[in-house]
Amino acid sequence: MRVSVRLFHTLLLLTMAAFAYAGPLDSWQDTDARQAIVEFVEKTTQEGSPDFVPPRDRIAVFDNDGTLWAEQPVYFQLMFAIDRLRLLAEKHPARAEQEPYKTVLGGDLKKVLHESSIATILDIVTESHSGMTAAQFDRIARDWIKNARHPTKEKPFTGMVYQPMLELLEYLRAHGYKTFIASGGGRAFMRAWVEETYGIPPEQVIGSSVELEYKVIDGKPSLVRKREIGFLDDKEGKPVGIYRRIGRKPVIAFGNSDGDREMLEWTASREGPSLVGIIHHTDSAREWAYDRDSKIGKLDKALEQAGKENWLVVDMAKDWKRVFPD
């Protein structure tokens, strides 16, 4: 009798464990999007499959803003840049009457963020990100990401990452894929926190950058960040940046906006299997709903191309059980 009770308990625990385990991509709904991802990974990593991809070629690239973490109401790095200018203006009051300080400090911040030209935005970023060593900038970025909070969600910015995408990164790495970030955001800014947040090391981050200059400061060799854009990793720059850094065409690429269109198009053109995905922001309840008319993360031409070329479109409202890691 005791053996039967023990056996019953064992079977009950095994049954409960089986139901509790949902397999890979637990935060994804069991929809066509999840099935397409799982089927693609299985067919490209199973030896003997006609679509098998050797481990050396298993490259997956991801945009960051709007793909791995949120990007509303404005790109988070721009918030970092504005906070940085405010701090510099406090330390050096005379700068308050100079640009871009005057624009940022004296006007309606919402207007600044949504109506400024690309030239003004770049001016804000280069001014706030230059005039220091690479090591100093890394410390400043780490401190900000640790202490800053999202203006409406009131979470740390690293709490604004997408749980389903964290699971996708882990799932791909478990199957031999090497994951890279290819973002229009600043490379040095992302390198300060992405390894801890995404499990992606600094050397696998491709992004926009300022020019660097080697100097010996107080007897110490240093790299100084200049007030000059070195490379803009957006639109047609993304395939260029990926090839310069990796030297291989990706097998998998995910983005969310027209700024990612060329990267997705280039990945889809590879010989052999490819998976190209777009994160479509359709969830106004849990996140934000936006696409064609948005200034931040505009998705228009890439969405049209996705329909014509059968790219995977992930509907955030329908395909994700949850959005953020709570």
Automatic annotation (TrEMBL):
Domain of life: Bacteria
Gene3D superfamilies, per database record: HAD superfamily/HAD-like
Family matches, as InterPro entries: HAD-like_SerB, HAD-like_sf, HAD_sf
Annotated TM spans: none
SUPFAM superfamilies, per database record: HAD-like (SSF56784)
Keyword tRNA processing on entry: no
Keywords carried by this UniProt record: Hydrolase, Signal
A GO MF label: hydrolase activity
Keyword rRNA-binding appears in the UniProt entry: no
Cleavable signal peptide: 1-22
PANTHER family with a match to the protein in the record: PHOSPHOSERINE PHOSPHATASE
Protein name: HAD family hydrolase
Source organism: Biformimicrobium ophioploci
Lineage: Bacteria, Pseudomonadati, Pseudomonadota, Gammaproteobacteria, Cellvibrionales
